[in-house]
Every structure is written in C-alpha cells, then in structure tokens.
Design goal:
alpha/beta, 27 strands, six-stranded mixed beta sheet, 750 residues, TIM Barrel, 18% strand, Rossmann fold, Immunoglobulin-like, five-stranded parallel beta sheet
Length: 750
C-alpha cells in the first residue's frame, strides 16, 4: 500500500472508535437533534454554487480516470487535491478488487479528507457493485441473480442480501449499484444473467427482498436500469424502446415501483436506453412524473456510467456536454456517475441562463437529505476491527452453498440417470474445471469448480476421470479424441458445457443465436453416440437452445452461474444428497427464431401456424421448457383445488386451497405456483399472469394443504386512463408445478 495511504489510515484508525459526531453548537446542520429538513436548508444556505454542483458529481479513482498510478494506488494527497475545499458528493468504486482490510482503510481515509479537509465537512457517499456479493476482492460470491431467482425463495434472497450488506458495510461502502430489475424478456441480451427472470411479479419479490437485506446494514441500493434497458430491438443492449406506457407500467416498471413503495429504496439508476426517443437520463416524464409524483420516491437518481455524456455521444440529443448536463438535471437526474465531467459544467450553464441555481438546489437537497438520513454526518467512519472477520466468513460460504443448491434446476432425467450411482464417472467439457461466477464478481474468489465438487462428493466411492474436450468458443476439435476415450471407459458421462461472462455473454455482448457456442454441440452428440448414459450440465447465464441434442442425452441440469460454492452444490444434487427444487424463471425456447418468447404476453389477433412446428399455433407459447419448470427426484400430485367462493362481489379477496402430495420415496420441496386469467377483458390480457408462489416442504408419502389469498388488486387491469380497474365477469385461477401443468378453477366477480 502507498505510504501516504498508510499514514492517513493510521490516523483514522486511531480516531474511528472514539467518533461520536460533531456536538451541537454553532452550526445547525451539524446538530443531530434538529429535524433533517432544517439541517438540509441550513447547509444549503451556506453553500456556494460550486459546492452545490459538486455534490451532484462523482470522483472516479482508477485507471483512465482522475486519479491513478501504474501501481494501482492513489495517494490521499491526490484525493485531497481532486476534492479540494469545495468537496465532492460521491466516490465511484474506490475499493473494487482492493481486499477487505485495504478497502476499509481507503474508505475511511477518503472520508477523513471529505469531513476534515473541505470547507463545510460534507461526507461523501462511497459506492461500489454488489450484484451477487461485494466486489471487493476476496468477498463471498453468491449465485448470480438469475440463479437466485431460480430458488423461488425471496426469504433466502433476503438472507443472502443481508450477508452481502454485512460484508459491504464493513468495507466502508455506503451505496451499491444494485440490484438489476430489468426483465429478461429477450435472452439474446448479454446481461440477462443479472436479472431475476422474465416475469414482473417474480422480479418484484426478489428486488424487494434484495433491497431490504442490504438496507438492514445501512447500505443504500440503486436499482438499475430504470427502465427497460434490456429489451431493445432484437435483444440489443440499450436500444430505443417503442413500448406503450401501458406496456411499461404493467411489465417493466413493476419491480421498480415495488422497490419504491415496498422497500423504501433511496436511490435509482437511470438507464442508457431511450423511451420513444427520449433518453431515460433526461426523461422528465420518467424521472419526475412517474418516479416522484406518481410513486412518491423521495431519494436521488444517479446516471449509469457516463450516461449523461451519452446524450451527446450516443443519443445525439445534446450538442455539448453542458447541454446534456442541463437536460438531465432539469429532468430529475441528480448524480453524474462515475467521474467529474458533464455536471461540473453546470455553474457556467447557470451563468448562461440555461438553468437556475434554484433548479440545481432541488437536486442538491435530495443528496443532502440522503446523507443526513444515512447518519453520515454523525458516523462517517467504519469500525475496522471486524472487517477481516467478515471477509468470506464460514457462515457466508455455507449460505452461498445453500443458495446454489436451491438454484439448480433439473430439466430432464430419463431412466432415472440421476442421482448418480456409478463406479466410474467421466467429467468432460470446457466448464468442468473452472468456477464460472458470472458478471460483477469480485477478484480473488476461492471458487469450487464442478470437477472439484464431483471429486469431493464421489472421490471415495467412484473413479473420476476428466477431459476438457473443447473450448467454449472456436472450431478446435483436437480434444474430442481424448474426451471420447475417457467417455468410453466410464459408466456415465457428465458433460459440463455452457458459457462464460465476457466470452459468450455479458455487458455489451449480445447474441443472435442461443445455441451453445463453438463445437460444444458436436461434442455432446459424439459422446452420446458412444452409448453410455449422458448427463449434460449447463453452466451459463442465459437459456440455450438444444434441438440438436436434447433427445440424445439422458439428463439435463441447468446451473445458472452459481457462485463460489457452485461446484459443491452441483455435486450435492448429482449425488442425491440434495433433492433439486429450482424452477426456471425464464422460458427456454425451442429455437432462437421464436424469440421473444415469454409466458406473460398478449394474445395475437389471429391464429397463425409455425411452418416448422406443424400443428403448433403461432399465437401460443412455443417452448422447450416453460416458465416455472423444474423436476425433482420425487413426484408431486396436485388435488382438490377449492375456491372458498365462486361468486365474488367487487372488493372481495380470492381465497382458495390445494392439496400437494409427495408420491415418491424422497423428501422434497415443491414450488407451488399460482396464475390468474381474466377470461374476457376489453383490453386484451395475457393468458396467464403469475400472482403468487410458495415453497413447501413435503415429506415422502405425505400431503400438505396450501392456502392462498389473492388481494383485490390482483384482479385489476389498467383501463383506458391507465388506472387500475376490476371488471365484472369470469376469471380463472391456475395452480401448478409449473406454468403449464396444474389445476384450474373458475370464479365470477359481480
């Protein structure tokens, strides 16, 4: 560590345990006994225009940014010079990949500069990423978001995010640029692994759980990307969104609205894309009318990385960065991340009459209010003594393994090939001997690969052989011969295939085809021809198409990027120690040309037919595996769907129950899914909408009765005025093991 950092950190370490905040005195904004709004106005009244503007700016400490040395270090002298006496509102990711002890020392040292070396002593918000674990090096890596949603267990999600919050807070990070609440409506998009799936209700439940867990630890969340950033034309990143307001409110806005109204989120990240030609970063309707006026959001909005500049560089909506800054600030965007750039030009924009100081003060109030609410003025520093203890602590690794186990989805199990009970196991494939964590993962994670996990689980009772076979991409087949030799000598073949972040997907890395890349599909087919039982394990962040090989293998296991304990979790499932309970939160289409293919969709105006599929109607749901699908090592029988009342008055809740029987010999957890259909509505509705779900433990041979109550709001649609309305008429409730298999009953609303 740089000597300057060490010296300043020592001073901070000596003082943090004694810090009690500034005692009430001459300056009202430093008096914690006064109402926050009074403190905000007092501080605002003491600020120069420059000090106000720079509360809306961020400082980036890293390569290619304001402060950087080739060693990767930056001195506190440099930080102090960059911040100056005016201060700065935010510091962007100064601790990424730095390690726990170093991170908290850096955070405290930076905060000391802000508190003690600026004119007004305004503390900074230090932000970083924590999508599925703190991005500080060596932190616990949990399953990626799409894997976490596959558990269908929001309570587990909150436990995971609580753990993430503990690690994050211990390193001096006040705010995370997470979770991702975009919907995975088109899996060609490179970042769909960051989502909670295709369904707005499910994404809402997981988004709220994530935010609540982080907030328990005093860490602010900035959900992203508001709104509809992942559903541009053809699944392309940040494309223009021509959707109607109805489509936006019913689908894409739902998770963000829940984050505001249920989780009380204090920040939001504007998206890169445009809505009907208007950039989300400069969209007054989106950031002010909807977010603040309609939903009551009282926090602050940050840009995505250089999103303000993109108004000039990408959208071509502003001729200069100064104009871009004015457009965004007036629209309701409050912070220009990640570095000092466009918003720093606002003082000159005031001089030119493009924006008033009073307008800028509206944005600044939001930042100051959030800092007072977070208690930063009283407690700007983090206690350092427990930081190392929390770094990838044993209890966190255990939780990561549990989450990974519950996220794994069994898609096919012909001839009961699983769980494995063979003496000689061949492990083959490009993802076998590597732990794929997915995007926004910390450096230095001690991950367990599928091969290592299988050796840990089976090494004492089976002979484990390994061959890579091929790479994830490319045309090289030189490894096929070794793979086939290994396969021919085994009793069963486990083929670990799939993808990798920033190779087959990831940020700005969209795809036009969902089949396995490279020669992976050829390898599967050639191994299958040997005649041994074959289990394909897909380690990936998105669905894959599998028409060329799905019928040639006995078992298919989907393991979305499962975090550092993914290999052990996979082996737990393959061995039968864990009965798989994960379910898909995104549809697996038959082929890429079927996209977009989501359960929640409006009916077509005419029954067409796919030439490729014979009698399958084009307007129907064409899938390889449907939304909500997932097998178990046992079987469940659904019986006795009973509605408490079949004729309801407007305003009445829908109450019903269903019996779930475990008809097998293995204890299991079943995810009971509830879908609602408004059979006739003057504004066409999706055939099925997910409205509730519950994970139920059912011992072998036993029956459990599960009760549900749907609130009146679940029966509503958005009418011509985009207001919720419940029509009289007939509805159907569907309860099942997935979106296509279950029981249906009908009721009327009079």
């Amino acid at each position: 560590m740089n000597k300057s950092i060490v010296a300043l950190c020592v001073g901070v370490c000596c003082s943090t345990s004694l810090w009690t905040g500034t005692s009430p005195g001459t300056l009202p904004y430093k008096n914690s006994q006064l109402p926050i709004e009074q403190r905000v106005e007092d501080l605002l009244g003491r600020m120069t225009l420059e000090e106000k503007v720079f509360q809306l700016c961020a400082l980036r400490l890293g390569e290619g940014d304001e402060i950087f040395q080739s060693s990767g270090n930056y001195t506190m002298e440099e930080v102090q010079k960059a911040i100056g006496e005016r201060g700065i509102g935010h510091i962007s990711c100064p601790t990424t990949d730095k390690g726990a002890e170093r991170s908290v020392k850096i955070s405290n040292a930076i905060q000391k500069v802000a508190v003690e070396k600026t004119r007004l002593g305004i503390p900074v918000f230090i932000n970083d990423e924590a999508l599925h674990g703190s991005k500080v090096a060596g932190s616990t890596s949990y399953p990626q978001s799409i894997a976490l949603s596959s558990t269908w267990d929001p309570e587990l999600m909150e436990k995971v995010s609580d753990a993430i919050g503990q690690e994050t807070h211990s390193k001096g990070i006040h705010m995370v640029l997470s979770p991702t609440l975009d919907l995975a409506r088109d899996p060609r998009h490179g970042r769909m692994e960051e989502t909670y799936g295709e369904d707005p209700y499910l994404a809402s439940r997981f988004g709220v759980a994530f935010i609540k867990g982080l907030q328990k630890n005093g860490v602010l969340c900035a959900p992203k990307h508001f709104v509809a950033n992942f559903v541009g034309e053809g699944g392309r990143d940040s494309g223009n969104i021509p959707f109607s307001e109805r489509e936006l409110r019913e689908l894409h806005m739902m998770p963000y609205e829940a984050a505001v109204k249920e989780a009380g989120v204090k920040s939001m990240m504007a998206a890169y894309n445009a809505i009907d030609g208007v950039s989300c970063s400069a969209n007054y309707w989106l950031l002010t009318e909807v977010l603040r006026n309609d939903w009551g959001f009282n926090g602050f909005v940050v840009s995505d990385w250089s999103g303000v500049n993109h108004l000039r560089e990408a959208h071509r909506a502003a001729e200069t960065w100064e104009d871009a800054a004015v457009m965004c600030a007036k629209a309701g965007l409050d912070v220009d991340l990640p570095r000092v750039r466009s918003f720093a030009m606002l003082p000159q924009a005031v001089q030119k009459g493009k924006i008033t100081e009073e307008e800028i003060e509206t944005n600044v109030r939001r930042i100051l209010r959030a800092k007072f609410e977070a208690g930063l003025f009283e407690h700007p520093y983090i206690e350092e003594k427990d930081t190392k203890k929390l770094e990838d602590a044993p209890q966190f690794r255990a939780l990561a393994r549990q989450a990974a186990e519950k996220s794994i989805i069994l898609l096919k199990n012909n001839r009961n090939v699983l769980p494995l009970s063979y003496k000689k196991i061949a492990v083959i494939g490009p993802n076998a001997d590597v732990c794929q964590l997915g995007g926004y993962s910390a450096a230095g994670v001690k991950g367990v690969s599928p091969l290592e996990g299988i050796r840990n689980a089976f090494g004492k009772q089976a002979v484990i052989s390994y061959a890579k076979g091929c790479k994830l991409t490319g045309t090289d087949k030189s490894g096929f011969a070794e793979a086939k030799k290994v396969a021919s000598l085994a009793d069963v073949c486990v083929l670990v295939m799939g993808g990798e972040w920033l190779t087959t997907g990831g940020e700005t890395m969209d795809r036009s085809d969902l089949s396995l890349m490279g020669v992976q599909e050829e390898l599967i087919q050639e191994i299958a021809q040997i005649g041994k039982p074959v289990v394909v394990v897909l380690v990936d962040g998105r669905p894959v198409t599998m028409q060329k090989w799905v019928d040639k293998v006995d078992g298919i296991v989907m393991m979305f990027f499962a975090g550092e304990e993914g290999g052990n979790a996979l082996a737990d499932v393959l061995s039968g120690r864990v009965n798989p309970s994960g379910k898909l939160t995104v549809t697996f289409p038959l082929q890429t040309g079927d996209l977009p293919m989501c359960l929640y969709h409006r009916p077509y105006g005419r029954e067409g037919r796919h030439v490729e599929y014979g009698n399958l109607p084009a307007s129907r749901y064409v899938y390889q595996f449907p939304f909500g699908y997932g097998l178990s090592y046992t079987t469940y029988q659904y019986k006795n769907l009973k509605l408490a009342k079949k004729n309801l008055a407007k305003g009445e809740e829908v109450r019903f129950s269903v019996d779930i029987t475990n008809t097998g010999k293995v204890d299991g957890e079943e995810i009971v899914q509830v879908y609602l259909t408004d059979l006739f509505c003057r504004i066409s509705q999706s055939e099925k909408k997910l409205k509730a779900f519950r994970k139920v433990s059912v011992p072998a041979g036993e029956t459990k009765t599960v009760h549900f109550t749907l609130p009146v709001s679940d029966l509503a649609f958005l009418n011509e005025k985009l207001e919720p309305e419940v029509e009289t008429g007939e509805f159907a409730v569907f309860v099942g093991t997935n979106s296509q298999e279950g029981l249906t009953d009908k009721f009327r609303v009079e």
